[in-house]
Amino acid sequence: MARTPSNMLALGTQAMDFELFDTTRQKMKTFQQLKGKKATLVVFICNHCPYVHHVIEEIVRIANDYRVEGVSTIAISSNDVENYPDDSPEKMTEFALEHRFSFPYLYDETQQVAKDYDAACTPDFYLFDEYDKLVYRGQLDDSRPQNGIVVSGSDLRNAIDSLLYSRKINTLQKPSIGCNIKWKKVE
Fold it and tell me: pTM of the entire structure?
């Protein structure tokens, strides 16, 4: 498994709108339709990545814990499904059901949204405030597959709590580490 870090999109960047297919509800959805009242968490994931499998339960817990606080979670898969069929929209639906997603799991077929967000790995986390400005990008926590550190979501949870309770969000943020996004070959 490749260890690819986040590209660390500039803080303050405006969230880019998109319209993608929601594999959990079988319809097209936009960022504007899905964003939260107080914050929006955009997470790039995929079905087969061991880094995602390592943290998926905590991602679901965070989505459930903060939904009532006005934080919306949006998961996006941008992988090339021709070469990685385990990441197909049908398999995304199964993955979302298996892990009891309470949030949309969107398919970025053209990979344009991943490019717009400068996403590099799975998982890759982006937290936007109520004005759709980026306030956090980086890791969930220090846990990685096989490093012995328990998954806690501490870095992301601290950022969300700081945003919700009007505390300063630390701008020294560690990049996420995961499998690289599987880009389509350009012909």
Answer: 0.96
